[in-house]
Amino acid sequence: MEENKNNRLICLGLEGTAEKTGIGIITDDGEVLFNKTIIYKPPLQGINPREAADHHAETFIKLLKEAFNVIDPKDIDLVSFSQGPGLGPSLRVSATAARALALSLNKPIIGVNHCVGHVEIGKLTTPAKDPLTLYVSGGNTQILAYVGDKYRVIGETHDIAIGNCLDQFARSCGLPHPGGVYIEQMAKKSEAKDENYLKLPYTIKGMDLSLSGLLTAAIKKSKELNKTDKSNETYTLEDVCYSLQETAFAMLTEITERALAHANKSEVMLVGGVAANDRLKEMLQKMCEEQNVEFYVPEKQFCGDNGAMIGWLGILQYKNGKITKMGDTKIMPNYRADMVNVNWIKHDDLSKNRRIIPKNLIGKGAEADIEILDYLGNKSIKKTRIAKTYRVNKLDNLIRQRRTVKEARFLNTVKNLEINTPVIYDVNKDENSIIMEFIEGMSLKDYILKHYAKNCSNNNNNNTKNNLKDLLNKVGESIAKMHNENIIHNDLTTSNFMVDTYNKLYLLDFGLAKYTDVFEDKAIDLIVLKKALVSTHYKEFDEIWNYILEGYKISKEYGKTLKMIDKVEKKGRYL
Hints:
By secondary structure, this protein is of the alpha+beta class. It has four domains: 10-125 and 302-334, 2-Layer Sandwich (Nucleotidyltransferase, domain 5), CATH 3.30.420.40; 132-297, ATPase, nucleotide binding domain (Nucleotidyltransferase, domain 5); 363-437, Phosphorylase Kinase, domain 1 (2-Layer Sandwich), CATH 3.30.200; 441-569, Transferase(Phosphotransferase), domain 1 (Orthogonal Bundle), CATH 1.10.510.10. Helix content is 41%, strand content 19%. The strands form six sheets. A five-stranded mixed sheet has the order 3-2-1-4-5, sandwiched between helices. A five-stranded mixed sheet has the order 8-7-6-11-12, sandwiched between helices. Strands 13-14-15-17-16 form a five-stranded antiparallel sheet, covered by helices on one side. Strand 13 (363-364) and strand 14 (368-375) form a beta hairpin. Helix 4 runs parallel beside helix 6 (212-222) and helix 14 (519-536) packs across helix 16 (558-569). The longest helix is centred in the middle third of the chain and has 27 residues, at 237-263. The two termini are 37 Å apart. The relative contact order is 0.11.
């Protein structure tokens, strides 16, 4: 292909996955020549997919005319479009427009993943090199990290996306679309603040979250504005908006912090339409400062859906041999980010930096600081759930107190199931701390990385491999024992298992644990672990997972649980 007169590759990107229509023109050195997005605002509340598709069909023509006033069509070298995920009718219009352009201009066509486009335009327009990315929009709520040639989804919503949650609440209250903008405005007017924060469901499951219960409760609160709450005080719609936003964004910030501790990245990046919210940015900035990592967010035009991000990803793929055949341009409404083979990232270009843990601590998790001390002559650790400045005090105090008590209770309870946990020496509810036995050893995550990745590749080292197999069997057995007693850990990662110097397995961190006989919760407990494994042990995942399931066979409902895992994963809850 002949290059244009400036010796630069120029790509035209078409974005149309939901209600926003975007055209972007960008060069391979990252210069944005044109980028404009027009949002479809329905006359009534809610987005009708067919009406949104009609909007795309009309708007693409208008935007292309504007774009071609900036650049001659003959200087376009590539055409790229959002192949998914998104609404089927919208995606079809975008794909059709892209095919027509590519054929008329006689240029290559590139189908790209919308979610990955957000990450790559963020990296282009900020100093981020290897970030943990929180992607929040009307249709997506995900935490993405580049691991092993893919952007792995290591955290996500179990039901609805944050943007959808805000939009549904706004519709129920008669607020215009997009709801998030108006909720933010009303939240700023609230006089509730900390002292009158309205208690709403706060549902975290490892590095995942659930928003449907929060939405239902917030809608119920909004219908009771003329009533008083349990404190006999009246509240306004502004107060409900404030409390909804504080709760939802605190949950998003917490799962990002949890993913950060597990993935050990040194950068956090916020992308997506909801990234424009000032309060969410403020919360994440505070969290990153506390965790000693960098925080980045693209400028507003690149946060929401836009054509420039589609054009930029098209260039990255094209320059690395990923050209889409015309026959392969069919839309993919359920196109996950982790389905994309990311071959354009060079490992040498990735940041080698990791989180910096203060010298006085031996560990700093998402919730707590860990330090070594002597307790009555015993080498011990003190785990303190520190105050989170990104959460309102009323909510933060409640969460830290409850989780401290819950952790101490479950650490003792599961001992009766012959599950190893540290011995508790003291619980201080005033400072939300627990002093417990010091376990000499390493996390299961480090054990796998050290012993499996290196030693198990050596066929002569059968003892090491057998040791690991036994440990992973015990992981499955421990989970099954809890599930048989209707106990859900809710934060199963390889960071929350310890292996001592005698290869004895310990289970830690029961702050999110609960009793439940809801069968789906048991499946989700395992899914949380499964995603944590993929995010750090992707090369050996199949073998590791099979060893764990082998141990889990002692579960009373082994077969049903596995079927439920498959059912939950097929729901496509990443959308």
